[in-house]
Amino acid sequence: MKSHKDLTVYKTSIDLVVAVYNLTKSFPGEERFGLTSQLRRAVVSIPSNIAEGAARNSKKEFIRFLYISLGSLAEVETQLEIAGRLKFISENKELEEQSIYIRRMLLKII
After folding, report:
1. What is the pLDDT of residue 92?
2. Which of 20, 32, 53, 102 would staple 43 via disulfide (CB 3.0–4.6 Å)?
């Protein structure tokens, strides 16, 4: 691996960030500092921690940051479920499949 940018899980998680940002544009204005902000921060954390871990000196540290990414992914999934129950979004199979794919890749690397 030359850099984190070579990792498919990194590239796919960046795609998830873009998808979530586009999705949250339609959230109610009063959620700008609530669920919208929390969801965006959690989704950005996924590729950010992959990148930070890949830049570390040891495999052990890299794995620790991958676990943090995994935790952020769980946060995103939870927040998307909440958004769905609040009727901010409808069911989105594509995002669900993308999340599952990212989880599988993270676990495989770990």
Report:
1. 84
2. 20
Q: Are 79 and 88 in contact (CB under 8 A)?
A: no
d(CA 37, CA 98): 21
- CA torsion 98-101-102-107 (nearest 10°) is 160
Q: How many CA atoms lie within 13 A of 106 on its CB side?
A: 29
Secondary structure (3-state) at 93:
helix
**For residues 47 and 9, what is the distance between their CA atoms, to the nearest angstrom?**
8
Q: Is 2 exposed, middle or buried (0-12, 13-18, 19+ CB in 10 A)?
A: exposed
Are 99 and 43 in contact by the 8 Å Cβ rule? The answer is: no
- Residue 57: per-residue pLDDT: 86
Return d(Cα 42, Cα 77) in angstroms, integer. 10
Say how many C-beta atoms besides its own lie within 10 A of residue 8's C-beta.
11
Q: How far is CA 96 from CA 7, 40, 53, in A?
A: 20, 16, 25
